[in-house]
Design a protein that fits this description.
Elements: H1 2-33, H2 36-57, H3 60-71, H4 79-102, H5 104-109, H6 122-144, H7 149-171, H8 177-202, H9 216-251, H10 253-266, H11 271-289, H12 293-320, H13 322-328, H14 332-335, H15 339-354, H16 358-364, H17 370-393, H18 395-421, H19 428-446, H20 453-474, H21 479-492
Helix pairs in contact: 1-7, 1-11, 2-6, 2-9, 2-10, 3-4, 3-6, 3-9, 4-6, 6-8, 7-8, 9-10, 9-17, 9-18, 10-15, 11-12, 12-15, 12-19, 12-20, 13-20, 15-18, 16-18, 17-18, 19-20
């Protein structure tokens, strides 16, 4: 357990550092050195590959997590199973490629009017799809070995640093934009080679095509499990990437540059959620194993409440400083058109946090199959709402579609969990959080704007944070927040 905790802490630090590098790229370097349509093309190319990769690998990644422990015993150390999975993924990619070629015309015609530049890079998208697919499989293999630090370092920081270097090379006119895009895909190849080299050195990975360990029964079980996960994973990726692609197709690449930049600004709100879920998911799984529904109820409530507190504070902070962020950004007056997107996407992230670990509770319970149903509903509603709202409201319509879909998604999960498991997260403490939120909003409106945006961010954020935390402590909203505050005071006093 010590190894798991240590790696989780290091991984969390890596994630935060990755977000910082990502913010430098997306909020400063990209707007300063690239044109809006170039940023839109880069983001659309990446999102298209990330959208197609789960379809290409057909749910095999989760199968590695499930079957590797049982097939990794003996001197082979699971190399034959991983080799078999990689071979299957190549077959799956071949079938995906045939399907794409058959449907190429209707798919690409969707981008013909407003994002025709994308049509010139179809082969590049397919290469990136293949690389992302293999990287994903190798990352899950590494996770099965409890070696999660290096893959996270590559994904969260390595790729972004390489992208940063490419932006500078383009700015210095060492490479042109076409080469910039090709080399951007090349960074994924570098990442894959480094990951494979790491696994060969530290995990003894070797290709082994002796597949005797894969019996007919095991093969059928593998395909059945992969198919089930394929549906859920594909729907999840559709939810996260389809809005960006539809904005490019319906409003153009420049609009997608604004949209994806604003979207990324809002994702800061959900970062703490990942760390909270790492611990709460383990406890929930143990509670279900012991049939301890009182413990499920307790963690459900505490996780939702603490996520609500943190998410609300962060959303208020982002909202209060939006004018400063756009003033600091290169070409901020252009990207300011995404201000509404930041708030709507931020609100959708907060809604997800307010409803707590509902997805985890469903997945870990005997009703795990329902998660696929509800995710499919979310994907369908997202597609439909984007198609309806983007022509009417532009990029704000895409963000509104996401918000409505997330609200629907969480209400369905909440009602299902309440009906089937008789647990729910809410009590009067959530009303207290709402009251604190309203007070902070009023205070922010009354605060004068300072001329220097950096100073304004510092003073505004400090006042709102002190006010929010102070009210939360005074109203005794969360025992965990009080405990952290007391420990912090004790450390300052040297006790």
């Amino acid at each position: 357990m010590g190894v798991v905790v240590r790696q989780s802490v290091i991984t969390s630090i890596i994630s935060y550092l990755g977000v910082i590098v990502g913010y430098v790229n997306l909020l400063y370097l990209y707007p300063k050195f690239l044109q809006a349509d170039q940023i839109g093309l880069l983001r659309t190319l990446q999102d298209a590959a990330l959208l197609m990769a789960p379809f290409a690998q057909f749910g095999l990644a989760y199968s590695i997590l499930k079957f590797f422990p049982g097939l990794s015993k003996g001197p082979d150390k699971g190399n034959s199973f991983i080799s078999f999975t990689l071979l299957l993924s190549i077959v799956a990619y071949g079938l995906f490629l045939i399907t794409f070629i058959l449907l190429k015309e209707p798919i690409l015609s969707f981008f013909k009017d407003n994002a025709s530049e994308l049509l010139n890079y179809t082969s590049l998208i397919l290469w990136l799809t293949f690389l992302v697919m293999i990287i994903t499989l190798m990352e899950y293999y590494s996770r099965s070995l409890l070696k999660i630090i290096f893959p996270n370092l590559l994904r969260e920081i390595g790729l972004r640093l390489m992208q940063m270097i490419l932006v500078f090379l383009y700015y210095q006119k060492i490479i042109d934009f076409h080469q910039f895009l090709v080399l951007s895909v090349g960074t994924y190849l570098v990442s894959l080679l480094l990951l494979v080299g790491y696994l060969m050195i530290f995990a003894g990975f070797r290709l082994n095509f002796n597949f005797k360990i894969i019996t007919r029964e095991k093969f059928k079980e593998l395909i059945a499990f992969s198919t089930l996960n394929f549906v859920g994973t594909s729907a999840s990726i559709i939810i996260s990437k389809i809005d960006s692609l539809m904005v490019s197709a319906m409003k153009g690449l420049s609009s997608n540059a604004i949209y994806t930049t604003a979207y990324y600004m809002a994702t800061v709100i959900e970062i703490p959620r990942r760390a909270i879920l790492q611990s709460s998911t383990t406890i929930i799984a143990k509670a279900f194993e012991e049939n301890n529904m009182a413990e499920v109820q307790r963690i459900y409530h505490k996780t939702a409440l603490n996520q609500t507190l943190i998410g609300t504070l962060l959303l208020i902070g982002v909202w209060a400083n939006l004018h400063n962020i756009f003033e600091i950004m290169p070409k901020g007056e252009f990207y300011e058109a995404g201000a509404t997107v930041v708030l709507l996407i931020g609100a959708s992230k907060l809604i997800d946090m307010i409803f707590g670990p509902s997805t985890e509770i469903i997945v870990l319970s005997k009703h795990y199959w329902f998660n696929i149903v509800v995710i499919s509903v979310l994907a369908l509603s997202g597609l439909t709402l984007n198609y309806i709202l983007i022509p009417i409201f532009g990029i704000s319509g895409a963000a509104l579609a996401t918000l409505i879909s997330i609200i629907l998604f969480n209400i369905i999960k909440y009602v299902y969990i309440l009906a089937k498991l008789k647990v729910q997260p809410f009590n009067f403490s959530f009303i207290k959080v709402l009251g604190v939120c309203v007070v902070c909003i009023i205070v922010n409106v009354l605060l004068p704007n300072l001329t220097n945006p950096y100073v304004d961010i510092l003073y505004r954020s400090s006042i709102l944070s002190i006010l929010f935390v102070g009210l939360a402590l005074q109203l005794k909203i969360s025992e965990e927040v009080e405990s952290i505050f007391r420990k912090g005071l004790a450390m300052l006093r040297g006790k």
